[in-house]
Specification:
Mean pLDDT: 89
Number of strands: 13
CATH architecture of the largest domain: 4-Layer Sandwich
Shape: globular
CATH superfamily of the largest domain: (Glycosyl)asparaginase
Distance between the termini: 38 Å
Order of helices and strands: HEHHEEHEHHHEEEEHHHEEEEE
Largest sheet: 8 strands, mixed
CATH class of the largest domain: Alpha Beta
CATH topology of the largest domain: Glutamine Phosphoribosylpyrophosphate, subunit 1, domain 1
Number of helices: 10
Number of domains: 2
Strand content: 15-25%
Low-confidence stretches: 14-33
Strand order of the largest sheet: 4-3-2-6-5-1-11-12
Radius of gyration: 21 Å
Length: 350
């Protein structure tokens, strides 16, 4: 994969800014007003670094619609069997079936598309993009989503990798000493499987181009070992993803149920609309989840959440931010300063 030349990127961005300023100066009446265009920017969850953010930025610089560029970025992660939270190789539900969720939203058209509980289709983000572009629907689920994907040329294939299958069997065998499942290879620990934990893993990616067009995508295999048919926040507009073409885009990873209850991504964009920096808006949404978390099984002895949710956001100016409930961790961003990982802001310190 070709790498973006940072000097060329900065030069092209500067040229775009200069062209925009010249046009504004020519058309404006006295006094002249200098209009600055935003630097292109891509932000994503940490598993999007470096390839997803780089691919998305390449698309934006090439002039592709931002929504296409960010979907191309996350497709790389969906296709990676080593990432067990998304697409091919994602961890299955309690019956050993991989069910995927995804959503896209485009700030230019103010349209969205999503799929939930889709099986045997590797790239749900692309299917969600087809839902947005070729239907009048926002969300298609289950068997209907798979049929829709196949009608549009997506290939049906087995998404359960050998590693994910072994991890599922290990979980199944360790559920209870009273069931009929026995651990395989008793006495021999598999160091690779020891690294595989239950997960809420997801990838979110949002972008803005030099025209201020914003878009976002969120895609996931969802909570590992979930009840079949469970849908988290990723395909739900306003929860796992939200885009307002006049203000910005935001998405999230982490405990989906908490994000659905709090309308997390919408609350981030709404805070941006009211004037907050994207980083501060993400902290605001994280604090709101802390405020709304009261159920006994979701709080520690000190009353604080026993889970994490992370937010990622960009605004039309090209500013970005990320924040989590708990301190620690990083998010990925590609802007005029390069492609890198950045420490999260946070609501609570560990």
């Amino acid at each position: 994969m070709s790498r973006i030349n940072r000097r060329r990127f900065l030069s092209s961005s500067a040229a775009a800014i200069g062209a925009g300023a010249a046009a504004a100066s020519a058309s404006a009446k006295a006094p002249e007003i200098l209009v600055r265009r935003p630097h292109p920017c891509v932000v994503s969850s940490a598993n999007g670094y470096p390839h997803c953010t780089s691919k998305a930025m390449e698309g934006i610089i090439a002039g592709k619609p931002v929504v296409d560029a960010v979907v191309e970025g996350v497709t790389l992660v969906e296709n990676d069997p080593k990432d067990m939270s998304v697409g091919y190789g994602g961890l299955p539900n309690e019956e050993g079936v991989v069910q995927l969720d995804a959503s896209v939203m485009d700030g230019v058209s103010c349209l969205s598309g999503a799929v939930g509980c889709i099986e045997n289709i590797k790239n749900p983000a692309k299917v969600a993009l087809h839902v947005m572009r070729y239907t009048d629907h926002c969300l298609i689920v289950g068997e209907g989503a798979k049929r829709f994907a196949k009608a549009h040329g997506f290939k049906e294939e087995n998404l359960l990798t050998e590693r994910a299958r072994k991890a599922w069997l290990r979980w199944k065998a360790s559920l209870s000493e009273r069931d009929d499942w026995f651990p395989k290879d008793t006495g021999r620990a598999d160091p690779d499987l020891e690294k595989v934990k239950g997960t809420y893993g997801t990838i979110n990616c949002n972008g803005v181009n030099s025209e201020g067009d914003v878009a976002g995508v969120t895609t996931t295999s969802g909570l590992s070992w979930k009840i079949p048919g469970r849908v988290g926040d990723s395909p739900i507009i306003g929860a796992g993803l939200y885009v307002d073409g006049d203000h910005g885009a935001a998405g999230s990873t982490g405990r989906g149920e908490a994000n659905i209850i709090s309308c997390g991504s919408f609350s981030v964009v709404e805070a941006i609309r009211k004037g907050m920096h994207p980083k501060d808006a993400c902290v605001y949404a994280a604090r709101n989840i802390v405020r709304l978390t009261r159920a006994k099984h979701l709080v520690r002895k000190d009353g604080k959440p026993n889970f994490n949710v992370k937010f990622y956001a960009v605004d039309k100016k090209g500013r970005h931010g990320g924040a989590a409930i708990w301190s620690g961790g990083k998010y990925a961003a590609f802007d005029a300063d390069g492609n890198r990982r950045i420490d999260f802001a946070y609501a609570l310190e560990r």
